Amino acid sequence: MSVIYQRVALIGLGLIASSMAHAMRRGGLVGEIVGTARSAETRDIAREVGFCDRIVDTAAEAAEGADLVVLAVPVGAMGAVAQEIGPVLKAGATVTDVGSVKRAVIDAVAPHLPAGVHFIPGHPLAGTEHSGPRSGFAELYDNRWCILVPNGAEEVATQRLCSLWQSMGANVEMMDADHHDLVLAVTSHAPHLIAYTMVGVADDLGRVTDTEVINYSAAGFRDFTRIAASDPTMWRDVFLTNKDATLEILGRFTEELFALQRAIRTGDGDHLFDYFTRTRAIRRGIIEAGQDTDAPDFGRSVKHD
Ligand code: NAP
């Protein structure tokens, strides 16, 4: 494959950025990868793992002279990073991000970018419950979706970023930021909150012991615990920045939950059966689309965020 960007700057060196670096190297897609992270500890680990060509101390140093800058920090930190790199970006560079929320990232980042820089927000729908520079792997994006938000950027710049993601193994979909935030509230954000809640409920319930919860978790609870092990900083920021869409979906969830609760209380088996038949069909659709998150991809539990 040919080189798509000469120099790429990765700002933040956790799961998502390190997996991008591994995937870019696998495909020989970029000339040079320059990385940076907030802490010296993460920078040292990244040096040791060796997925970047150079590790530098600051975001501004990494972004200077880069053709593509990837913001791979928690959503709540994107604005401050953009403010730092804005003055050093070279004309014609592309800035993208990988944040799980899109409207809030656009609002926080766009004001800091100079004219002549292409800003194309993105979100790879791939992840694991692991984080940090050791957790990345080249196959993370294979056959997963990556959503790009063109946001008025030039077509040529958008296509170039699109071809990078495709060459890293992903399928790319273009979407408007608000629609992205609503879709993800349904498919990821509300389910995470429900998982966090369920694990909290089990933890609070005095009549069921911790040992029982651990030993018998295969009956459904185990998947909740995997989701609820996701990074607290990342998920705090997701809920604070995708507030409206998440609250709308949780409102609908509560209505449905009450309807199911009523069906259980009144012994309305038909309601329960019809409901579960409909949801089973959705599960089949996910498997047929090859997006079954329970598949043991490369021995790791892969989920969509
Ligand atoms: P991660 O493994 O926890 O890595 C986060 C990186 O951001 C670290 O290098 C960390 O630096 C840095 N960072 C944290 N707080 C910061 C701050 N306040 N200022 C500057 N840098 C900071 O996270 P990740 O899973 O790669 O997630 C990165 C982004 O991808 C997030 O926006 C998340 O929403 C999005 N995303 C995540 C997933 C997923 O499943 N994990 C999936 C899709 C998208 P230090 O290590 O030095 O603290």
From TrEMBL:
Gene3D superfamilies: 6-phosphogluconate dehydrogenase C-terminal like domain, NAD(P)-binding Rossmann-like Domain. GO terms for molecular function: NAD+ binding; prephenate dehydrogenase (NAD+) activity; prephenate dehydrogenase (NADP+) activity. It catalyses: prephenate + NAD(+) = 3-(4-hydroxyphenyl)pyruvate + CO2 + NADH. PROSITE patterns: PDH_ADH. Keywords: Amino-acid biosynthesis, Aromatic amino acid biosynthesis, NAD, Oxidoreductase, Tyrosine biosynthesis. Its EC number is 1.3.1.12. Residues 6-294 form the Prephenate/arogenate dehydrogenase domain. GO terms for biological process: tyrosine biosynthetic process. Pathway: Amino-acid biosynthesis; L-tyrosine biosynthesis; (4-hydroxyphenyl)pyruvate from prephenate (NAD(+) route): step 1/1. Belongs to the prephenate/arogenate dehydrogenase family. This is prephenate dehydrogenase. It comes from Aliiroseovarius halocynthiae.
